[in-house]
């Protein structure tokens, strides 16, 4: 546990350095590379209520503001198409993307007109699981991911979800009503909430299994300063002393019915569909206020201000207000984390990509993981992980996403507003240089 704590702290510091985003203007996405496969992420930042554990860019739903936003979102999608990008997969996150189904449908339909989209993943909340959603999204969405977080009524009340989304039993019944209606039904869960004990986790696991969902994701609680403050006021102080114990319990119980797809994603035996675009996609374009793009070794951050977003898109400019270019070693560390999080690092693919072996690329990281007993297999072809190694990857991903959440905190505080006079100096979306 001491080693895990030191590792967690060390990686938290490294993530803060890695994710030090700098304000940017006169920036656009780089042109697409021939032969490169991209995924399109689309952010819908509206919710009917705000949860205290969430750091994503989100606002309470206002119909007029939301409709105006969807118009801008679709225009940004057209700008990305004019810049030469093409996508076969679309991931729609939030917020709650299904708060306005008519606008969502127009957005999905436009994406299919502009790009050869073959698969759409969309997030939603339990209260939207009804026949209308099934009818509207049939044929449009192949993967539906439902934010449940917990089936525990007392915890749902503390995190402001019980009144809006109903009891754990009501949520379970809603999940059962849509099971089998989509190629993939994923249930998003969170573990290690303050006060969450082993008995509560076991109940959550039993209800996930009973839901009929063919995939579930058990995320560790990921915090930022704002999340820690809001949780302290509603649930309690965040701590990590039982995280490893709870994680190993989840794996032990769930793998009786499910297979591990990533370090925290579980698929029903015979199913292997992962609703995590950053795992399956080397590079992706994000559109919408508060979205991120990762392209050619750089992270681009769209403005978190809805008004700035509207004005920049209307003026034909990329709504990017932050950027961080990663060094080659940073890119290798990122790929190392993502490959192992996906449970297998292909050494030959690594060498083809980076021009050197993994041992030559990251000798210190390899030595640490080897010494800590993280590798179940380390051959000339591949690396796989032991149970302890999988937990180390959970820690790395938790701290990486917590670093992303800190970026969101900073962006919300600054709102990085671009003034009208500056807008006139910005170049059009297709002409600006990265």
From TrEMBL:
Matches recorded under InterPro entries: Coproporphyrinogen-III_oxidase (IPR034505), Elp3/MiaA/NifB-like_rSAM (IPR006638), rSAM (IPR007197), rSAM_horseshoe (IPR023404), rSAM_sf (IPR058240)
Sample GO molecular function, one term: 4 iron, 4 sulfur cluster binding
CDD domains to which the protein is assigned, alphabetical: Radical_SAM
Residues in Radical SAM core domain copies: 32-261
GO term, biological process aspect, one: porphyrin-containing compound biosynthetic process
Domain of life: Bacteria
Assigned GO CC terms: cytoplasm
Descriptive protein name: Heme chaperone HemW
Source organism (scientific name): Anaerolinea thermolimosa
């Amino acid at each position: 546990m001491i080693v895990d704590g030191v590792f967690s702290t060390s990686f938290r510091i490294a993530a803060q350095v890695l994710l030090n985003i700098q304000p940017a203007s006169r920036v656009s996405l780089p042109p697409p590379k021939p032969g490169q496969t991209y995924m399109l992420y689309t952010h819908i930042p509206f919710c009917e209520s705000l949860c205290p554990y969430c750091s994503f860019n989100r606002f309470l739903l206002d119909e007029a503001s939301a409709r105006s936003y969807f118009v801008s979102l679709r225009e940004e999608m057209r700008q990305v198409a004019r810049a030469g990008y093409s996508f076969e997969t679309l991931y729609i996150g939030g917020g709650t993307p299904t708060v306005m189904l008519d606008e969502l449908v127009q957005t999905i339909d436009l994406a299919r007109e502009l790009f050869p989209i073959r698969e759409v993943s969309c997030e939603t909340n339990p209260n939207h699981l009804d026949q209308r959603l099934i009818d509207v999204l049939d044929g449009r969405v192949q993967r539906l991911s439902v934010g449940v977080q917990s089936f525990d009524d007392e915890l749902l009340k503390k995190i402001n979800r019980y009144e809006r989304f109903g009891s754990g039993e009501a949520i379970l019944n809603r999940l059962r009503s849509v099971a089998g209606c989509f190629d993939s039904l994923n249930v998003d869960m969170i573990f290690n909430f303050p006060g969450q004990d082993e008995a509560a986790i076991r109940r959550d696991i039993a209800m996930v299994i009973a839901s009929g969902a063919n995939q579930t994701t058990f995320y560790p609680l990921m915090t930022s300063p704002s999340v820690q403050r809001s949780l302290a006021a509603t649930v309690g102080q965040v701590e990590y002393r039982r995280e490893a114990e709870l994680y190993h319990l989840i794996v032990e119980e769930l793998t009786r019915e499910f297979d591990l797809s990533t370090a925290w994603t579980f698929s029903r035996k015979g199913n292997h569909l992962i609703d995590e675009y950053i795992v399956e996609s080397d590079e992706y374009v994000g559109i919408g206020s508060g979205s991120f793009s990762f392209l050619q070794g750089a992270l681009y951050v769209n403005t978190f201000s809805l008004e700035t977003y509207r004005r920049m898109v209307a003026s034909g400019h990329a709504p990017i207000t932050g950027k961080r270019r990663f060094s080659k070693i940073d890119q290798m560390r990122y790929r190392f984390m993502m490959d192992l999080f996906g449970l297998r690092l292909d050494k030959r693919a690594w060498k083809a990509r980076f021009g050197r072996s993994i041992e030559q690329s990251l000798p210190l990281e390899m030595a640490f993981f080897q010494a800590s007993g993280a590798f179940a297999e380390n051959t000339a072809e591949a690396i796989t992980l032991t149970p302890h190694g999988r937990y180390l990857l959970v820690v790395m991903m938790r701290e990486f996403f917590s670093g992303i959440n800190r970026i969101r905190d900073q962006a919300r505080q600054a709102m990085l507003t671009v003034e009208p006079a500056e807008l006139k100096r910005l170049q059009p979306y297709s002409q600006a240089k990265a």
